[in-house]
Design a protein that fits this description.
Strand order of the largest sheet: 3-4-5-6-7-8-9
Structural class: alpha+beta
CATH superfamily of the largest domain: Fructose-1,6-Bisphosphatase, subunit A, domain 1
Low-confidence stretches: none
Distance between the termini: 34 Å
Number of strands: 14
Largest sheet: 7 strands, mixed
Helix content: 25-40%
CATH topology of the largest domain: Fructose-1,6-Bisphosphatase, Chain A, domain 1
Radius of gyration: 17 Å
Number of helices: 7
Shape: globular
Strand content: 25-35%
Order of helices and strands: HEEHEHEHEEEEEEHEHEHEE
Length: 253
């Protein structure tokens, strides 16, 4: 399979997982806690099963690192090439009845994101991209190419995490920039707003894992944006414990 085939596979499995998540949401569900006290639902488990099975059947040569398997102690190791899967990014938002949750499937090669698909089940959208070749948004039966933008003269439109909205460190960081508007939302949707060219900056000061960011970073980079660490270097993958440092996601600069 070439990269276009792998991207098509990621989009297909994202759609299947998104459909199952919405079925579970309509039927009702309970919320449990994992060992690290983060929430988990049957939607996380069943969506991941759909994705992992599909990836391993269609591309058996590529290892899969998936959030719920890792939490259950069935994780893999860093390889030259591997999938990173977050079957339900934004479980807190999902459990609270909000729309800001996502399905993330990203492919890493030599420590960098190559391609990704991000489903937004409650919005009926899938964003996907192949780094160096372009990014797209599928909504219903329509597909549209998307591009990051340069910040407008009136200042930055910033998207930041809902759960760190009151963090003084965020306020101190944003004081260094000309900010026209700040919106706080959950999940990978923040990356997508940059990729679509409706926002400019997403600073992440709190904890994230690699499966949270691989797919949306690929989409953003495919749309012309980028994700940098606090030191100004590109956010890379295969880090100890699969944990990300502080990072800043940007549109065109």
């Amino acid at each position: 399979m070439n990269d276009h085939d792998l991207l098509e596979l990621a989009v297909l499995l994202t759609a299947r997982a998104a459909e199952r998540i919405m079925e579970i949401r309509a039927a009702g569900f309970s919320v449990d806690a994992k060992a690290d006290e983060t929430p988990v639902t049957v939607a996380d488990i069943q969506a991941e099963a759909i994705i992992v099975r599909g990836l391993r059947e269609a591309a058996a040569h590529i290892p899969v690192i998936a959030e719920e398997e890792m939490a259950a102690g069935r994780g893999g190791a860093v390889a030259r090439e591997y999938w990173l899967v977050d079957p339900l990014d934004g479980t807190r938002e999902f459990a609270a009845g909000r729309r800001e949750f996502a399905v993330n499937i990203g492919l890493i090669r030599d420590g960098a994101p190559v391609l990704g698909a991000v489903g937004s089940p409650a919005f009926g959208e899938i964003h996907y991209g192949l780094v160096g070749q372009g990014a797209w948004r599928r909504r219903g039966g329509a597909v549209e190419r998307i591009h990051a933008r340069r910040p407008p003269p009136q200042g930055l439109t910033v998207f930041a995490s809902r759960h760190y909205a009151d963090d003084p460190a965020l306020a101190a960081l944003l004081a260094r920039y000309d900010v026209a508007m700040l919106t706080n939302i959950g999940s990978a949707l923040k990356f997508l707003r940059l990729a679509e060219g409706v926002a400019d900056f997403y600073p992440r000061l709190g904890r994230t894992m690699e499966w949270d960011t691989a797919a949306p970073q690929a989409v953003l980079e495919a749309a012309g944006g980028g994700v940098l660490t606090a030191e100004g270097t590109p956010l890379r993958y295969g880090k100890p414990g699969w944990e990300n440092p502080v990072f800043y996601a940007w549109g065109l600069r």
